[in-house]
């Protein structure tokens, strides 16, 4: 077996050693937008986030609000009843203490507690339902949007950072939607209720207690910005860990092959320690918020008892009123403390939602233009007219490519590594838009037709065949979801995959894991051929595997290829001499330009680059 563009193991090694050089750079896994730490609270984002509640609001929100109001009223009524029990039943100003009244008021308080318990239980149940539905919707929206984004989007971001947004960032909204939002409302209503009641009972004492509120406000506003920034730092560091984890797991074979585990572990340890340090810092700051509020609360209680005692002495209030007051004031600091915590939670959630919406607002760089029409059934006549393309500005990967492929032809693309072979095949499916020139299929500029109609008629078989977790049958059916079992098996038979599938323990129902590690390289190739054949594309694109496989599988693959290529235009990034020789037309690329074209015999005769490549290959053999 022979390869045209031989990838030396050295190249892999260089990649690895250069990456371990980069490992010393702290910011290796940081995608720039994950770094934007200090952003102002974004109210329109907030409104957009709560727009997710809308579909359920009519159905569930009135009930939740009712339960919330009921819970709050019953909670606020109890201290008043306690005060009344003391002043009217236990130690009345005039007349004897009344046990009957005391029992009555106790029973009333008990009843209110029960109502409060039931109201809270139902409120929690229904807010959880809303919360879960909202998270479900958000996650589906995000996933379906990410699926539509263009290749260029994924080129710029580590896969781990995309993963973090779909998992961690969405999860961090969960608390906000399940309990947080309602708790804020309850706390606000409760605070307002307490202020009103305190003022009604005794406005002078009420005002005296409120003296500490500005102090508390100052403390919480000062701290909250520092807390917010420190939590953002935690999330950013976690995002780096996730990106690194993702890369490490994907590259585990290379790491182990080059015994780089220790080096990798050291790097991971650094990141892990750094994340822990940030978490400790953020958590300590968070913890300091509570005690500070308590100290200010304590100050308020001191004022209450000192001034309350003065008012009792002057006969302005009775002892029961002071007890009720103390109870209300106790209930006053709790919501403030919770609101402080909640504010942090809200900020974390807002930062997450910003990151989620940033992805959702990302427009696919390649999209249907307004009024794009579906391309009719493709014959397969393809023309590249002076096509120039660059992934990175001012670094053209293809320059002035002119190429005409007639329907049904098979084209072999050959050339040194990095010469632009994969780029050409990426452009036919319009995974990227070109900078200059035009690409036409059957006379249609591919930018004028809908992506779905274009890509629906093109199949791509990549070198690294992606096998999804599921059965072999599911994996072949991925080519056309409505194919019957018989069609799936016929496709497998046509590409000679049936023979090996039948030998598997459960045949077509054998479960394969993600990336198909239970299958050999050749088996995976045949499976992907079956998948492509089932899709019955008009244009077939094939990035031939470079790995060596045994002669028998090689023959089987060649046979399968013949079936697959029949009656369609095909582009093959060819590495095997046998494939190249059978191609109708060979295109030789070099540094993003077509340098030679023709049949094998013509190109050999030319004694140019192609001939050099072939000779190099024989030397290699
Ligand atoms: N996603 C990308 N972002 C930026 N540059 C890229 C990207 N993909 C490829 N390139 C660059 O474009 C050039 C052509 O790459 P291409 O993958 O088309 O080469 P190739 O001939 O298919 O190589 P190979 O045989 O190694 O697969 C190379 O210089 C490569 O570094």
TrEMBL record:
GO terms for cellular component: plasma membrane. It is found in: Cell membrane. GO terms for molecular function: ABC-type oligopeptide transporter activity; ATP binding; ATP hydrolysis activity. Keywords: ATP-binding, Membrane, Nucleotide-binding, Transmembrane, Transmembrane helix, Transport. Residues 63-346 form the ABC transmembrane type-1 domain. This is Putative ABC transporter ATP-binding protein YknV. InterPro entries: AAA+_ATPase, ABC1_TM_dom, ABC1_TM_sf, ABC_transporter-like_ATP-bd, P-loop_NTPase, Type_1_exporter. The keyword Protein biosynthesis does not apply. The chain crosses the membrane at residues 60-81, 101-119. Residues 382-616 form the ABC transporter domain.
